[in-house]
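Query structure, 375 tokens:
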């Protein structure tokens, strides 16, 4: 019989009940994962910066605390919780006879004048921001953030109707990259996920926990669950996993370029999509009026970090030195994953190099307006 649970357990249970049984009921040891250990270290460095102003020794940690500083958090701001900034806030809520627990990375109750709302921040380290970072729309329905928001509403903010939820991303690698993604979660929306997802899952957990063995628990219907997050740690013990093969997945554009052994044509430009970034494209010219200061972005500035990343990953001095001439296409693949940076901006592309040609080809169909120099 289980006596407590948390969101990680609910996620595992929803994905595969048998995996949850192996972990929580059979208590089969799981091998520690390097990514988890790295994430824990970065979280600790961020916590030390928030509590006592200690600067992170790691470059990735500095990138992530820089993002916090850019959004109104100061070094040492969580030293005194009476200021309204709670670091590693632990909470618990009853679900019948079960205690549901959690620990939020950062809760800002100070109601900063520029923000106005309570903020709930979750620090996330990842190997690839562009592939794995959630969009604001995905953030607004994220299970963990909604559960934590429900706890904040219930225990800390009984009169608030909404809070801002944030993923403060840090991408690991030779050149760490950060991204700040935020969304609004309402009291009603968080309560709906708590009542519609969490409570039924916990009730079912109690029932499944009484099964005599893991083989008596139904495994996930989707075979891909066996491969999720680097592979289920209990595959060698599960009879269902041995007979399953994951679905073949379509190779991403980045992987296609990265794994190519010869020059490849660039995929067709994407169709303009509803909800995509709204931006204007200036080709060999620059806006002279009607554009707000600071809203102009050049291709050179936008692609600088990605050019360095591609060169570093290939261990060459310049991205154009990547074998088979794939460097510009690899940079473009990263840029396509970073389109949010173009929102309400004027993108200026000068020159006729390979990267510039690819950028015009890919982005012109998506732009609100395309302005070209004539003559």
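Result returned for the query:
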């Amino acid at each position: 019989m289980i006596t407590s649970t948390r969101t990680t357990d609910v996620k595992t249970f929803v994905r595969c009940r048998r995996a949850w049984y192996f972990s929580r009921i059979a208590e089969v040891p799981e091998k520690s994962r390097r990514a988890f250990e790295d994430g824990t270290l970065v979280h600790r460095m961020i916590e030390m910066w928030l509590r006592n102003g200690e600067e992170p020794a790691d470059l990735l940690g500095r990138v992530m605390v820089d993002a916090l500083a850019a959004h109104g958090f100061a070094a040492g701001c969580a030293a005194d919780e009476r200021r309204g900034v709670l670091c590693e806030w632990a909470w618990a809520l009853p679900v019948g006879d079960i205690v549901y627990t959690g620990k939020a990375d950062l809760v800002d109750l100070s109601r900063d004048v520029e923000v106005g709302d309570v903020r709930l921040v979750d620090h996330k380290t990842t190997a690839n921001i562009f592939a794995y970072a959630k969009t604001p729309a995905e953030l607004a329905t994220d299970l963990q953030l909604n559960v934590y928001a429900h706890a904040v509403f219930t225990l800390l903010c009984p009169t608030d109707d909404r809070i801002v939820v944030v993923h403060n991303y840090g991408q690991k690698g030779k050149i760490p990259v950060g991204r700040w993604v935020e969304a609004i979660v309402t009291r009603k929306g968080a309560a709906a996920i708590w009542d519609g997802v969490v409570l039924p899952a916990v009730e079912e957990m109690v029932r499944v926990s009484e099964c005599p063995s893991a083989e008596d628990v139904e495994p996930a219907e989707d075979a891909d669950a066996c491969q999720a997050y680097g592979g289920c740690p209990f595959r060698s013990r599960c009879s269902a996993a041995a007979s399953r093969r994951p679905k073949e997945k379509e190779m991403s554009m980045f992987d296609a370029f990265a794994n190519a052994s010869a020059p490849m044509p660039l995929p067709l430009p994407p169709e303009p999509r509803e909800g995509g970034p709204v931006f204007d494209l200036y080709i060999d010219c620059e806006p002279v009026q009607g554009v707000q200061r600071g809203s102009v972005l050049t291709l050179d500035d936008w692609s600088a970090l990605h050019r360095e990343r591609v060169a570093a990953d290939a261990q060459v001095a310049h991205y154009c030195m990547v074998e088979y001439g794939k460097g510009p296409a690899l940079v473009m693949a990263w840029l396509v994953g970073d389109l949010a940076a173009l929102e309400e901006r004027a993108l200026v592309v000068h020159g006729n190099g390979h990267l510039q040609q690819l950028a015009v080809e890919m982005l012109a169909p998506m732009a609100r307006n395309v302005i070209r120099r004539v003559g």
